[in-house]
Every structure is written in structure tokens, then in C-alpha cells.
From TrEMBL:
Positions of transmembrane segments: none
Gene Ontology CC, one term: cytoplasm
Superkingdom of source: Bacteria
Name recorded for this polypeptide: DUF167 domain-containing protein
């Protein structure tokens, strides 16, 4: 399954996943430094969908808050 994800790094709300009409919004506490936010997004989405972190792949948007993510269920 592929999803459009909007990431909010450095959020006090996180870790949290919210769904809306646009796709998923992922709030993570980690800042976007040295890939820490991307790693956190992978872990949070894996937990949300009940899969291993290795089953979550960021396809596009590694340096952006808007990402395209694939989850292998």
C-alpha cells in the first residue's frame, strides 16, 4: 500500500499518526537532522500498521515534509 504522508518533525504531539482527506499526518519528536525524522517516521508508521520497520519504505521526499511511503503488509 502506498500513502501520501505529511511529516511534522520536532512536534510535542508525537509520536502520533492522524488520517485526513489528504492522507496521513505523522507527528514525530525528532528533528529533521541527519535523517532522524525519517527514521522516526518509519518506526511510527510500522507501529501504526502493525508491521516491522523494514516493511516501511520512503519512496519519495527524503528531504521534504511531504513524502510518498510504501507499507508492505
Amino acid at each position: 500500500m502506498q500513502f501520501s504522508v505529511h511529516v511534522k518533525p520536532g512536534s510535542r504531539k508525537g509520536p502520533l499518526v492522524e488520517q485526513d482527506a489528504e492522507g496521513l499526518t505523522v507527528f514525530v519528536r525528532e528533528r529533521a537532522v541527519d535523517g532522524a525524522a525519517n527514521d522516526a517516521v518509519t518506526r511510527v508508521l510500522a507501529d501504526h500498521f502493525g508491521v516491522a520497520p523494514r516493511d516501511v519504505t520512503i519512496l519519495r521526499g527524503h528531504a521534504s515534509r511531504h513524502k510518498r511511503v510504501e507499507v508492505d503488509a
